Amino acid sequence: MTVKTLLGNCTEPVIFIGRVASAVPLVFTRRGFRVREFLYYLDLCGARSVGIVLMICFLMGGVIGVQAAIQLQKVGSEIFSADLIGFSVLKEFGPLMVAMIATGRAGSAFAAEIGTMQVDEEVSALATMGIRPEAYLVLPKLIAMIIALPVLTVFGDAAGVFGGMLIGVTAMGLPAAAYWGRTVEVLNFTTFALGALKSVVFAVLITMAGCYCGFRASNDALGVGRGATSAVVSSIFLVVVADAVITVLYSFIGY
Amino acid sequence: MPADKAIEVQNVTIGYGDRVLMQNISFSVGKGEIMCILGGSGCGKSTLLKHIIGLYSPQAGDILIDGRSIVNAGEEGKRSIMREFGVTYQGGALFGSMTVAENVALPLEEYTDYSSSKIAEVVEEKLKLVDLGGFGTYMPSELSGGMKKRAGLARALALDPHLLFFDEPSAGLDPITSADLDRLILRLRDNFGSTIVVVTHELDSIFTIADRVVMLDKATKSIIAAGNPRQLLNDSPNRWVRSFLGRDGLKSSDETDFQVKKVD
Lengths: 255, 264
Prior knowledge:
The structure holds two protein chains of two kinds.
Chain A: H1 3-23, H2 35-45, H3 50-74, H4 81-119, H5 122-128, H6 133-170, H7 176-186, H8 189-216, H9 221-252
Chain B: E1 5-16, E2 19-30, E3 34-39, H1 45-52, E4 60-65, E5 68-69, H2 74-82, E6 85-88, H3 100-111, H4 116-129, H5 145-157, E7 163-167, H6 175-192, E8 195-199, H7 203-209, E9 212-217, E10 222-227, H8 229-235, H9 239-245
Parallel strand pairs in B: 3-8, 3-9, 6-7, 7-8
Antiparallel strand pairs in B: 1-2, 1-4, 4-5, 9-10
């Protein structure tokens, strides 16, 4: 890889971010906010993902509950499984699992859609109509994801907590009222909000990575496939790195 | 050279990265003229068109649209110039998630203050112009290749541009549909005085519609002929040009024995 290629690979995403950022004010113009596209993506990324999010987060809560049961029973502290499951799900696994589902569903779909539009010259057609492709193709997706992901995360959090509770009640023999009481005692709005805030960051990363890979896809079927794959891989990488950074930042402010 | 120029390509070099496709080429298109850009496969015809319409920036030189440089116009200036012309792409480039009518309506919704009933009226008028009246509710996937191209043309005509670009309009079409499209192009020029640039290598189309052609050559990365296609067929000093236009099957590389004459 030459220095020129390496520099190109580094500067292109920055230029793309700049182009999208400069298009953001268009949302507030008369024709800038495209309601129909926004609602379509809100449905795609949000409503249609609720089922899978509930299922996966419920199972994930259950899995953490099983591990918590095995370890905490050794020291007779089963009741603290409510703390462990609650904090792990709300602060880490809930936003992370929802981000992974969104990557698989939306991130790859964004890349494939824009990549196919490149192949069919629809992106060129937009440009030659004087319409900024970033404003037309990226902003509705970005806004829909920024709204959908935190909402999905709250759904996922609830499902995860109930999954853990099911294990706590059935496997560890804890009274349901005691488990629920402990959960409500230790978790508060801030815990929910911190997880939801993470998911906003994840929404931006997944959308930007998906759209960037779509725009970068070469003009053939192979290129579209590669773009979608690349979108998923880079989204997962970015989400995990961002999660680590945000977790460290939260720990600095005492959360 | 036409006196009243709609497009001027001035000493332009085009290519991808370090790869040069055409070097230092110049030509112009007069107002109300139909100009065909032709040449063998892979010589850079469509790439040149994408440079002229501002999708790509040339490595050197300048391109003027109605006297304004699209190369140095900046992002907003370029978009402003782009709004004044229409482009029809090889496959129509219709947005798959919209109906044909919504596709045609998009530029009108974007750049006019028309009411929705006025937009519907203009859309139907443009669809009728390209013989697609009544097809507004169809999705692009329900149209044939030729219909998609005509629908793309209707969208390109939505804002009544005086300058139109066609990228391979006849590619993949049967001869009858192709001839229909040629007649439509002539009608646009004759009825509306449009300046039209067509990228093609369909010789039947070229002889039907072109006032002038510029012929690109991959080997020399230059324009090897420019002028009226019939005159070039009969009088071009370049044997390959005569052979190409006369369908003789001579390869460009066969020309190496001959003096290749560059045409400004």
